[in-house]
Amino acid sequence: MDAAPVEARPAGPPGALPSLRLTDVRKSFSGNAVLRGISLNLRGGEIVGLMGPNGAGKSTLLKVLDGFHRMDSGRIEVDGVQVPSLAGRSDVAFIHQDLGLVEDLSVTDNLRLGQPWASRFGPMIDRDRERDMAVAALRAVRLEVDPAVLIRDLPPGERTLVAIARALALGATKLFVDEATSNLTKADSFSVLAVLKELALDGALIVIVTHKLSEVFECAHRAVVLVDGELVADDLMRDLDRAALVSKLLAHETEAGLALATESTSEVGPEVIRFVNARTCKIGAVNLVVRRGEAVGLTGTAGSGLHEVALLAAGHAPLTAGAVEVDRAVRIALVPPQRETQGGFPALAVAQNMAISSLRRRRILAGLVSGARERADVEQMADELSVVPRSVTTEFGVLSGGNKQKVILGRALLTDPDLLVLCEPTRGVDIRTRAEIYRTVAKAKAAGAAVLVVSSDYEDLAAMCDRVGVVTAEGTSDPRPKDEVSLDQFEEYL
């Protein structure tokens, strides 16, 4: 897409200095321009939603700001003073999706990392004072938890608030929140956004990177859109509606046009998998049937064991009671919930990541694999899923989050599965990629696959599924046709 760059919006009243000014920031990798002259003025007291398709340059921009990458040219100014990056500044914090917390340490220890410890006598740590400081930090984000509890024992929403509290305790007044709410339920996301709004009211600069339009409309003052490394929009939220923002993200395509491609006319066939009072140590009784040509969706609250159902269906969770009935000949493919840690091999190429689960289909004599056949299959799948960059020799680890998800989905589809299990399939992906995933699932259904979708995103269920149910600590509800269940009913039940 050829988009005309926009000029940086002035920050604050005439004569006021922006908290952060970027001027013509550029960055290329191996001759490929990733940032094409980004100019932005950002000031304290505002929340800026940074949006754009996967691979648009959002993560690269943040990595340039935090000093991970050195910009090729351009200028960065903080409070009117030029700096090479924002690295090492106590008034700046970057909160990424993984949060950077140490799971085996307590909340107190995580909050106090990087700060001088409170001492009692010489080198002895004053644990009482450390705890009091932790409680004060948690109070700043309205979080009431025992500071002695381990991070691993906290639910995702509370972990995110701990990460924000740590940033504030270190003195941050400029927060860059990169997809930190993508793993959260709607209720948890609302709690985090409420805290960010309070911080902005107190004068902090907040930049949130997100694909969730609802989050931007909920809390942001401005929407900044990058497409192909260019700044194509920098607009006040009061001047935008959903359709206008979507058009900036999708260029010449419309959201409605993308949605039409998800319609499916598949016929429902015999059952592929049946759960009969199936239990693990993390979930109650699961009773569920998934048939060929249909997609059954499940959602649930944090702590309900929602993802455990997907792992159980794929044979990755131990059964403690009941039964999971599935024919031994059934091919099952899983798209796991955590693509960074469970989904791919960062140092291997896209081709190897995508082909690794279907090597048997390309075996020739003596167990050898046909390289030509493998490359042809992978390139065809990468083209169908619009993986960017196009080269299948690109390392998996350098891909954007949405393109990693496409590769993992492509790997599952290359196994020609009878049962496709999708766990949070659209987490952290842009609108276009979401629509491509929906189309791909519709094609799999039409080809006769059974699909189990486990997602905390209600849009996934509405777009992909024929029947939907809810997972609670007690077990699963009986999935009902999606036309009989409204979003309000789901939220009330949860």
UniProtKB/TrEMBL annotation:
Keywords: ATP-binding, Nucleotide-binding, Repeat, Transport
Protein name as it appears in the record: D-ribose transporter ATP-binding protein
Keyword Protease set for record: no
PANTHER family in UniProt: CARBOHYDRATE TRANSPORT ATP-BINDING PROTEIN MG119-RELATED, GALACTOFURANOSE TRANSPORTER ATP-BINDING PROTEIN YTFR
InterPro entries according to UniProt: AAA+_ATPase (IPR003593), ABC_carbohydrate_import_ATPase (IPR050107), ABC_transporter-like_ATP-bd (IPR003439), ABC_transporter-like_CS (IPR017871), P-loop_NTPase (IPR027417)
GO MF entry, a single one: ATP hydrolysis activity
Annotated coiled-coil segments of the chain: none
Domain of life: Bacteria
Domain ABC transporter span(s) in chain numbering: 20-253, 268-493
Keyword Repeat: yes
